[in-house]
Specification:
Elements: E1 4-8, H1 13-24, E2 29-32, E3 42-48, E4 51-57, E5 61-63, E6 69-74, H2 86-105, E7 110-112, H3 115-121, H4 124-133, E8 141-144, H5 147-154, E9 159-162, E10 168-170, E11 173-175, E12 180-182, E13 196-199, E14 206-213, E15 216-223, H6 227-231, E16 241-244, H7 249-262, E17 266-273, E18 279-285, H8 291-296, H9 301-310
Parallel strand pairs: 1-2, 1-6, 6-7
Antiparallel strand pairs: 3-4, 4-5, 8-13, 9-12, 9-13, 10-11, 14-15, 14-17, 15-16, 17-18
Helix pairs in contact: 1-9, 4-7
Length: 314
Amino acid sequence: MRPILILTGRDDLTADAVVEELVSRGEHVVRYDTADFPTASRLAVSLTGDGWTGSLAGSRAVRLEAVKSVWWRRPNEFRTPDDWSGNARALAVSEARSGLLGVLGSLPVRWINHPSRDAAANYKPVQLAVAARCGLDVPRSVITSDPEHARTFMGDDTVVYKGLGGGVLGPEGRQFLPVALVSADQVDDGVSGTCHLFQERVDKAYEVRLTVIGDRMFPVAIHAGSEAARLDWRTDYRSLTYEPITMPVSVQKGVRALMDELGLFFGALDFAVTPDGRWVFFEVNPNGQWHWLAVKAEIPLVDAMADALQGESP
């Protein structure tokens, strides 16, 4: 039986649910965390005419040439022995990333998503540009380190400020920049310190989290029950209610084109729906969370992911 390889950490409830479903279907699943390399696992592969063949052995071993599909879920950073010098550890991690991830990335199987595609699509400026080309409605936006440019964009309006990246990993976990409202009189020379994303403020009737798995799309309306959640629903989950909905055909076509251009099999997309029914695209997270939606909105995302991992075509 060809194994399904899931790359993630040990504390991943989303992966737990999918593994349980796959095992119930009789699939052979191997779960692997890159944090186990090189201290607790071994790679031994040789190059043949068909690519790299051999094994990746940790708590369980897998023959890489036999792998059917790979889910790049949420693996952790490589971990080296604590008593190694800083330079040795940095070199080992760099070589592990190039070697192990290079071997895995060469496997000609279905990836959800391939790490190179995942990394490239994470750039928000890329997402916004591709979404606009694909016909999706995108907010007026600027990315700037020029205070005067920012003030000119804002004019007399209050606009939205958003972080461009996925936050910073600190001692208390990952820290995100919250969405904030900004006006021109708040802009000072500190803007010149780095890049900033400013967007027009979109009037929202509600927001939508769209989960895309292959050809299947699962849109869920998110209704905010507090002022904080209306600005950024991630700040007040307790006030949210969820409702599966349908989406316009034109939006479906735009999303399909976006996913194809970015080379993504999976994505978690965020939209606002305005009072007059416009769907406004905000972003796509190539590795976004979704299991809570499966539970809250009672939609078959676990089944859909298991179905996708059982497929063998890239």
